[in-house]
Amino acid sequence: MDYSLLFNIQITNVLSVNIIQAFDIRNVPPNCSIFLVIFLLPYPKPLFKTKPFSVASVIYIHQLFRQCVLEKDLRRVALLCQMYARFSAGDQTPVVHFVGETKVRLKDLNLQVSKTHWLSLLPHMENVDNDDEQCSSGELQFALSYSPTVQRLTVILLKVRNVHNSEGRVPNAILIRVYLVSGPKVLRKKTSIQKIVDGGAEFNESIIFTVGQIQLNKAYLRASVREAHSMTEFSTIGHVTVGARRSGKELGHWQRMIDNSKSPCTMWHRLMMKKR
């Protein structure tokens, strides 16, 4: 989904949301229509709804919505966009089903200038924020920075804390494997093995990838924490994925890196357990 955001601070405190287009809509029959519902969280009720559009390879929406938001509230407001499909057959009551959603925190964006962003609509189960401790196997802190002049993405792996495997056991030693996915290309690199002390470990290791600035809009990065049973035997404890095709905090970290090339952006992320 393609959209742009602009916040006018000096005059009216108005947030402008321009939904531009959507493409590659999946799992929706061609005889359906789709529409979008826009929320500004934590306000629970939808604020905007687009008109319905027939399903096509590219859907041109071009609808502009405006909402007054106080500047002091920008740090706690998130934009949630949900897509629904409506199917009707003859005289039967139309059936509406959920297609996907995406969320972006306004504090992670530069709202002083209008800028177009691509967002991926994810199924609800894939779009759960990493705030659910029952699904978490610990936390990973890392920093991201990107230099457009040399097309260099730097990942600084800092710390792991409260780490445990699916059985609840704290591992003796871990390493971190990092994957950069850009189209069909997958790059893999890993850290050294570190001993666990008091449920955590410090790495302070940098990993560098070469990636074009245009590719950043479609690339994503996955950091996988793995338990080291020996020098050659490993098992995955948990992972976190950040990038342009994510949502919420994982999208925000990536977007902050793109908007601020002068200094690394550091965040803690929950490690999601590997699905069985």
Automatic annotation (TrEMBL):
Transmembrane segments: none annotated. Gene3D superfamilies: C2 domain. One of its GO terms (cellular component) is exocytic vesicle. One of its GO terms (biological process) is synaptic vesicle endocytosis. Residues 136-269 form the C2 domain. This is Synaptotagmin-12. It holds the Pfam family C2. SUPFAM superfamilies: C2 domain (Calcium/lipid-binding domain, CaLB). One of its GO terms (molecular function) is calcium ion binding.
